Amino acid sequence: MQKYISKFHYLTQDLSGRSHLEQVMIACQNGANWIQYRCFSKDEEQLLDDINRIAEVCDDWGTTLIVTDHISLISKADIQGIHIEDMNADFKSIRKEIGPDKTLGASANTIADIQRIADSKVVDYIGCGPLRITLTKPNDYPLLGINGYLLITEEMKKRGISIPLLAVGGVIADDVDALLKAGVYGVAVSAAVNLSPDPSIAFKEIYKKLH
């Protein structure tokens, strides 16, 4: 069953001055229909408490809530899916664990990663990156740039891979038009909104480019 995948994935992040719940409330108030809760600073009990409160907000707004990596929480909270950042994960096993109805997202950096994900036949969308250097998730993966996405999407077409591909990693509002022209399905954004002087304005700017 093909699931709905938004073109704009908003990711929360650990910030000293704004909680994940506050980030979610700002995003929902400005039109978010897809939120990925991404937290690595809390234990499971704290995560569950956070997610339960966030799920209530998302439910009020009709917003899809995805959680990064914490598979054990999917049966304990009202969340719609999981995004797995481990590119070498066993996606078939994860799908068995979460069931057929939950959304499963995966991270990728190369066409080889994407092919492996596609071959699993159980992943609903791919977050591919990074576009440029990002401090939100420091890593040593090669930067793709706009042209890198163009090469990847062209190769996906040749191989008959049709999984929605989202650009992630340092994406800002000014990138959106070029990324869409390069063939990506949508974008995933955190710092461009969360670290901006006015997150509401930053969110709306990106939202308008995708809708």
TrEMBL record:
Pathway: Cofactor biosynthesis; thiamine diphosphate biosynthesis. The keyword Transferase applies. Its EC number is 2.5.1.3. Residues 16-193 form the Thiamine phosphate synthase/TenI domain. Keywords: Thiamine biosynthesis, Transferase. One of its GO terms (molecular function) is thiamine-phosphate diphosphorylase activity. GO terms for cellular component: cytoplasm. This is Thiamin-phosphate pyrophosphorylase.
